[in-house]
Description:
Layout: H1 4-64, E1 65-66, H2 89-108, E2 119-120, E3 124-131, E4 134-141, H3 146-157, E5 164-166, E6 168-169, E7 180-183, E8 216-218, E9 222-225, E10 238-241, E11 245-247, E12 253-257, H4 259-270, E13 290-301
Antiparallel strand pairs: 1-2, 3-4, 3-13, 4-12, 5-13, 6-7, 7-10, 8-11, 9-10, 9-12
Amino acid sequence: MSTNQERRAEARQRLREQMEAQARREKQLKIAGAAVVVVVLLGIVGVVVWNKAEQARAEEYAANWVTCEYPAETPMEKVDPAQFEDQGPEVVAEAERFNEQIDEIEETKREVEPPSGDQPRRGTAEISIATNAGDIPLELDRAEAPCNVESFVHLAEQAYFDDTECHRLTIGEEGAELSVLQCGDPTGTGLSGPGYSIVDEPPTDLPVAEDGSGMSVYPRGTVAMAKSQAPNSAGSQFFLVYEDSMLPPEYSVMGTIGESGLEVLDEIAEGGIKSDDPMSEDYQAPRRAVQIEKVTVGAQEGLPEE
């Protein structure tokens, strides 16, 4: 039988063991708690780092790519010539001629689907326009008008411009300084396009005309998109500037014309136009018909990696 001294010793031993076990449990809980805190902190840091990396990737993508809008083209509608009888027979005849052009457009128009997906914000494209008057090389720069350049390249690759006529030639005069050859309408009427339009990308770095008119100078050697006075109305028509021209800064600049192409344009301009009468069917039509035989897309450089 244990003595009182032995029982007290055993009790003290059990107490020490209980205290040591409690201490171990508390230590383990502290270690576990610290581990949880570390995991949580690491998770927070990881989320922050991931978010910053995602933001950087998004910013890099936005700097290299753009989502272009190509809304459906508004169709042309006929007019009622009778509404213009009080303005004289010439205006009535013009209205009738307009309706005839609408019929012609329906018979000869070419419609294609617009480009899809995001488009590069940078990079150049070499273009060769083969005409019956000679070759006109272009260098298009996406940085200036990425959506318009992509559309032009897209149409060229689908042979949209092949076997079409340049329908308009303007001869710059004092007070009306516009010297361009306009092309890109397969119907030859100047009223048609590919079935879609392009959002404007107006230039921001053109010289301002010195006459106080508020116009900008489109320098000789510029290639730009043609449009109506309505915003976002460009389609397939483009113009080639062979002498400095004054225009509102609303026409998207796509790039430049090579020197050999300017020589071809100078020769076309020297041929003159068929008529300078706005009421004539031949108004501003090149006297020597300019036929685009083929538009070829050459090297494309400086594009961002996909």
